[in-house]
Amino acid sequence: MGIPNEKLAELERYRESDRFSAREKAALEYAERITRNDQAVTDECVVRLREHFSEREVVELTFIVGYQTFASKFAKAFDLAPQGFARG
Fold this sequence. Notes:
Layout: H1 5-9, H2 22-35, H3 43-50, H4 55-77
Helix pairs in contact: 2-3, 2-4
């Protein structure tokens, strides 16, 4: 159950990996562009995203990425210890 370790190991190179579907790649690119300061969410990125997700799904994905980004920065600001859900 869950995501196979082999797939997780390729997460940093998801763009080149055959383990990720076009839908997953679109979502990962969108999430990356939302969270990174050196990247913007481009029109091209949104077009790719909407090829695979409904408007409702785009809103949900945006909320989840935004919330997780907020939670991460909040925890960092208060030097909160990780909860053990991810290695890092």
